[in-house]
Amino acid sequence: MKPFLDKDFLLYSETAKSLYHDFAAEMPIIDYHCHLSPKDIAEDRTFNNITEAWLEGDHYKWRAMRANGVDEAYITGNKSPKEKFRKWAETVPDTFRNPLFHWTHLELQRYFDIHEILNADTADNIYEEASAKLKSKEYSCRGLLQKMNVRMVGTTDDPCDDLAYHKQLRYEGFEVKVLPTFRPDKLYAVENPDAYIDYLGNLRDEVGFPASRFHELIASIKNRIDFFHDSGCRISDHGLENLYSNPYTITEANTIFQIVLKHKMLSKEQIARFKATVLLELAKMYHEKGWTQQFHLGAIRNNNDRMLRTLGPDTGFDSIGDFPQISVLSQFFNRLDGSNQLAQTIVYNLNPADNEALATMMGNFNDGTIAGKMQFGSGWWFMDQKEGMERQINTLSNLGLLSRFIGMLTDSRSFLSFPRHEYFRRILCNLIGEDVESGQLPNDVAWLGKHVQNICYYNARQYFGFYKND
Q1: If pLDDT is split at 50, 70 and 90, which confidence band does 469 have?
Q2: What are phi and psi of 366, to 5 degrees?
């Protein structure tokens, strides 16, 4: 019987152990997509207690607590930090076989050197020990990044953000690169005209001129992309149910834009075609700048209207959707490729039923200009767990080149989430180790170890070019 979460956790062969311990474990981390606060990093926030660091904004844990019958007052309500932590501790034993059980104890071990199982009996001691450490400078936001050997963090930022905290970090020369990511979802959110017009007011304040016609909207967007680029941004990101095809002409788009500016609702077809038009113009700008574009596809969000009214979005009421993905991806990419304006692209899929189809679609648009130009991205959100990662790795291995994969990311709001990279690396090494043990790959650990290091770090470093001038 193997002990729980020992040094060989998830490593079931001698080859897997060698690949992980000798090649993967010490590799630095490039976390090219997350939702960490640049303000917290710039101000080097220290947390008052582990509840702040662990449960503040973590909808994975919130969903588990709700499923375990915990009252909302202990989740997002006004109960004390210690009371909230106790309720999480009571929930943890009931998360067995959920990745939260692994992540929770990995984080306790890696950050705090706490090897006890978190439960109702151990809750108070663990709360006090972890909270005391978090108050020290070693456990500030910057300290936590350095502790995990993080080299780069890609935050997620609205086009109207002034990026002041990124500039501060760059000026100070903080050793971890903290770079913005352009997240323009609000630039085409015309399904709510009133909110969209309010957002255009924010955009006007940043660029210095109004967007009263469609070509002025595009000029405003270009202004912000230029600003982000000058601030170190090299990646965009889009959260969509699915991509859109069949864009308008610029003249048609302006006609629709005028309808929105009159606070009038659009039809579903008008909304979809307007989004397609803006996305296409954005994608062309990304290519011109040499950026990478990311598309997170397939989430059906805000399913619970009552809780949306009470708590707002991003609070744990989203799930896997079954949207049509493949034909629109083909049309969108083909249109850009036809004019030689298709940027490096990463697509993250939330519905595993689409894995094979999506992976083969990405392969249609590699063009030899860069290795792995079109990436079938890592297991995302509900697929960010052992089986989901294995499915993604196996799909990519079967239908593309695992050797060119740019690896894992946290997609997290928590500064304690970086053991997810370790989780991925152990799973990767175990899968490759199994192939060696079964005779499906040569027993050449040095050769395979180099591929492991590439997937864990070097591929992403080369792909994004963050270090070209270093």
Answers
A1: low
A2: -70, 135
